[in-house]
Amino acid sequence: MYTLEVYKRDGRVKSGERLVSKEDLDVPRGDAQGIAEALEMKGFRVELRDTWVTRTNSQTGREYRERYDTPRSCSPASDLYWSM
User: Fold this and answer.
1) In whole angstroms, what is the distance from residue 79 CA to residue 11 CA?
2) Coil, helix or strand for 65?
3) According to a count of CB atoms within 10 Å of the terminal CB, is the N or C end of the chain lower?
4) Cα(35)–Cα(47) distance, integer angstroms
């Protein structure tokens, strides 16, 4: 599974671009890259990411899978999660 983040140039924002869309795609990598390339040709900046990443729990040492965009305070892989 892949996540497609689509950004558009926007002079009103400090970073110069804004997030337009974030969609999960359940297609093969080649198809996801084709979609990304089609959007890039229309003038968008596209980031294609693996949706699920493997991390290690900081307390138990076990590996688990979580979304790549999980906030640090919500991830058992960080000490911040265990100190709250």
Assistant:
1) 37
2) strand
3) C
4) 11
Helix (H, G, I), strand (E, B) or coil at 43: coil
Backbone angles phi, psi at 45, to 5 degrees: -100, 130
Cβ 53 vs Cβ 64: under 8 Å: no
How, if at all, do strands 45-50 and 17-25 pair? unpaired
Give tens-digit pLDDT for 41-83: 999 999 999 999 999 988 888 999 999 999 999 988 888 888 8
N- to C-terminal Cα distance for the chain?
31
The stretch 8-22 carries a mean pLDDT of: 91
Q: Which of 78, 77, 83 is nearest to 65 (CA)?
A: 77
Contact 55, 63 (CB under 8 A): yes
**H or E element that contains 35:** helix 29-41
